[in-house]
Specification:
The chain is an alpha/beta fold. It is built from eight helices and nine strands. The radius of gyration is 17 Å and the shape is globular.
Length: 236
């Protein structure tokens, strides 16, 4: 039996307007325990089905909290290996959304960096089919783990998220700042909307603003919250 879980939400904000662009759904324990502790209790053979269960729970909670009445999208994480499995793929999540009345045009599937991709070309075909249906695809944690820039050429997602490990302290590190600038330049050249996560300090915010980044996420704006759709605060 899979462990009980709850859904926390953390906003992605347009730092120029203060608008919440999306709420990312994050799994937590019933008392707010970490995602790691929840996922560690799931047997390996059940991981993908549990991943789909989390997405169903996230959509139900987002409906309960009234997310469709706001301008925000709902960002759902998905393992690459789920994509080809009819029992837990993105198409199954879309069918679940339709069954519960969640607007599918508000869904963003964020491809997790937590596992390698065995067949990038097959996944590219799956993602392209979803995009033709009007669904949006984002690549998580660009610059770390398995989420490498070359995959963008194969997958062509709509957006890409740069990880905190990449941007941390970039306002104090000219070499890191230049690497982030180059990564942003590549993403924009591919026609992708960059999102930067993990912003925790005003200095990081200012440096990223200087690089033209508008879509950001991090503790500086709002922490993940259970039972509410958190409203971000952008420091002046």
């Amino acid at each position: 039996m899979n462990p009980p879980f709850a859904i926390a939400f953390q906003p992605i904000v347009d730092v120029e307007t203060g608008m919440t662009l999306a709420q990312e759904a994050l799994v937590r324990g019933p008392q707010g325990q970490s995602a790691h502790s929840v996922l560690a209790a799931v047997p390996e053979a059940q991981r993908y089905l549990f991943d789909a269960e989390i997405r169903r729970g996230a959509m139900a909670e987002a409906l309960r909290l009234g997310l469709p009445e706001t301008p925000a999208s709902l960002t759902l994480n998905i393992f690459p290996g789920c994509m080809g499995d009819p029992a837990c793929c993105a198409s199954r999540t879309v069918a679940d959304a339709e069954a519960m009345g969640f607007p599918t045009d508000r869904l963003v599937f964020e491809i997790s960096e937590m596992e390698p991709v065995e067949d990038p070309q097959a996944l590219a075909a799956t993602l392209a089919a979803l995009q033709r249906r009007g669904l949006r695809i984002a690549l998580d944690d660009v610059g770390t783990g398995h989420a490498r820039i070359p995959l963008l050429l194969v997958w062509r997602p709509d957006g890409a998220k740069i990880a905190r490990e990449v941007i941390m302290g970039l306002d104090q590190d000219p070499e890191r700042l230049e690497r982030v600038r180059q990564t942003l330049e590549q993403l924009r050249a591919f026609g992708m909307v960059p999102v930067v996560e993990g912003i925790e300090t005003p200095g990081e915010l200012a440096a990223l603003r200087g690089l033209g980044v508008r879509a950001m996420q991090g503790f500086l704006f709002a922490r993940p919250a259970l039972g509410v759709l958190p409203v971000p605060v952008v420091p002046g």
